[in-house]
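Appendix C reproduces, verbatim, an entry submitted by the partner laboratory led by Prof. M.T., so that reviewers can inspect both the input and the predicted structure.
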Amino acid sequence: MSFKDIFKKSFIQGFTRYDATPENIIVVFFISVIFAVYIFAAYRLLTRKTFYSKSFNIALPALVLITAAVILTIQSSVVISLGMVGALSIVRFRTAIKDPMDLVFLFWAISTGIICGAGLAQISCVLAFVLTLSLFIYDRIPVAKAPKILMVSGNGYELEKEIIAIVKKYCKFFTVKSRALSGGRTNLVVEIRAKDDSALIQEIAAVKDVNSSTILAHDGEVTY
């Protein structure tokens, strides 16, 4: 037997050590299902979004199971693993990830499937605990208060001076974003950071020439 044959034999045997018995496969998938359900619940509880994507959340457990199955298959045969790498290399995913947190959970699901498929469930357990705790702590860290938008509509071109005078009483910092004057009417949009929104809107609404006043809040990015 030549060195080439010895090397080839040892190389193939190194990739066929995994005992893919039905019992082992069932155990791997059972553990993967447990972590998949945990990731599903964690995404639902930890993400705060205006529009919750149920389809994306359902896809996360599916990714865990599919990835675990791929890892089990790769460990069973080097020939199959090479063929699967070639097949997966032609796949193109064009779904845009709009929220960075979605990307975190996507990698978490794939990593959990890889780890469980490799038979290292204890690492998945530690990862789930540490990552959940970290996300919970980071989510509770206070950040700068997001500004709100004050929209006022009324009669008279001198209305802006009265509104700005009231805004100065409740806000240290404010920015006039838009002012529109047309047909004797004034439409004003102001970015504010008020301590007492209720008192501010009540005082503005009490102005004689004000027809409507609205304060809008948002959960988007905070500008420092």
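Confidence is low (pLDDT under 50) at residues 6-17. Additional entries are available on request from the coordinating office.
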